[in-house]
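TASK: fixed-backbone design
INPUT:
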């Protein structure tokens, strides 16, 4: 029985083998960070989500500069003013970004404030201008803004609230508190989860039993009522800064149990591996074995847990503040802003008051998509 073999008649190119070897060498000798970055770039949705997160967190550094008004500035002549639409063309001519001024009328039949855009009032937006004064991060007094309304005019892109305060400016200021609570909380939660989960998984025995019973007790309580109970005991005399840290710690203390269990179950399996036994026989202390040999083995799961816990904490702060048990005025967060939209009758008349829910939805989706991409990229050899 004869076997037919195919032989390529194409001319032999020795450079192709060298190029292939160079590519293989580049891949196999690349650091773990490079491998993660190369794979993350292929996940387009995660990249765009990361850009959105970077922009939103970057905006928290310059909230005062981005906002056209101070978040506490009141415009008593424009209470419950609707959002002013942004335009670029007037009567077929491009004149740059502007809004139309409103004509005010009080409807005596239903006592509703009615604002009507007047096409004859063209109010051009100014850029890099002087406006409301503020204290940058509470340290430096300034009045410089990225954009401002026309001189003596108004610019309410998201409308105003019951006190005539600009909703867009208040949402930008509120992002600083809501987003930083997520970051601060995940640092505490990640530390506790890795600490207790690492101890339980590495030592086992009575240490594992004590930590597991403790996590079961914490997880047995309903999360939201427990949040509410702990938030309610915060003294009303505390400053907004202390309340901020108090809410952050409360959210973190209740969120670490899931991560601790995951770390514990993984370490129970990895501690019996040969490389872990070899490190132990060479005299490596438990802390080094856990940090250098065990935790990197499931870093993708840690990354996914961290990125998915941040939106959970943002939602927790939003829910507590919405119920009036979290942050309180004069501090501003997305939850505090939504607290003012509890009255369904007010929302029916002034629907722009629920606009703070939009950045909450965007940040939650962005974290989920970015977390999925980062989790896959953390296993670059798969």
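OUTPUT:
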């Amino acid at each position: 029985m004869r076997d037919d073999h195919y032989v390529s008649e194409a001319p032999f190119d020795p450079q192709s083998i060298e190029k292939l070897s160079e590519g293989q060498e580049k891949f196999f000798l690349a650091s773990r960070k490079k491998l993660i970055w190369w794979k993350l770039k292929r996940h387009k949705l995660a990249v765009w989500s990361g850009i959105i997160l970077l922009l939103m967190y970057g905006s928290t550094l310059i909230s005062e500069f981005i906002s056209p008004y101070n978040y506490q500035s009141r415009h008593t002549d424009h209470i419950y003013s609707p959002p002013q639409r942004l335009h670029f063309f007037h009567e077929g001519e491009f004149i740059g970004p502007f809004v139309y001024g409103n004509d005010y009328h009080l409807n005596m039949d239903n006592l509703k404030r009615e604002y009507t855009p007047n096409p004859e009032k063209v109010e051009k937006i100014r850029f890099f201008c002087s406006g409301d004064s503020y204290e940058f991060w509470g340290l430096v007094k300034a009045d410089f803004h990225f954009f401002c309304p026309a001189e003596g005019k108004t610019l309410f892109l998201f409308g105003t609230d019951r006190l005539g305060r600009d909703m867009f400016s208040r949402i930008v200021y509120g992002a600083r508190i809501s987003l930083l609570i997520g970051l601060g909380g995940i640092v505490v939660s990640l530390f506790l989860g890795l600490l207790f989960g690492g101890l339980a998984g590495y030592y086992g025995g009575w240490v594992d039993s004590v930590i597991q019973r403790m996590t079961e007790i914490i997880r047995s309580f309903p999360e939201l009522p427990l949040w509410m109970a702990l938030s309610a005991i915060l003294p009303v005399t505390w400053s907004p800064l202390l309340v901020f840290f108090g809410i952050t710690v409360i959210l973190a203390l209740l969120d670490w149990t899931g991560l601790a269990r995951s770390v514990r179950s993984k370490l129970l399996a990895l501690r019996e591996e040969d490389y872990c036994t070899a490190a132990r026989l060479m005299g490596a202390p438990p802390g080094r074995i856990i940090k250098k040999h065990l935790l990197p083995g499931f870093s993708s799961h840690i990354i996914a847990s961290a990125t998915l816990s941040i939106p959970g904490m943002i939602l927790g702060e939003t829910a507590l503040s919405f119920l009036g048990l979290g942050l309180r005025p004069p501090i501003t967060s997305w939850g505090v802003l939504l607290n003012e939209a509890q009255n369904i009758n007010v929302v029916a008349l002034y629907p722009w008051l629920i606009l703070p829910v939009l950045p909450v939805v965007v940040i939650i989706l962005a974290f989920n998509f970015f977390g999925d991409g980062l989790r896959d990229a953390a296993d670059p050899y798969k």
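COMMENT: Strands lie at 87-90, 93-107, 112-124, 126-136, 140-148.
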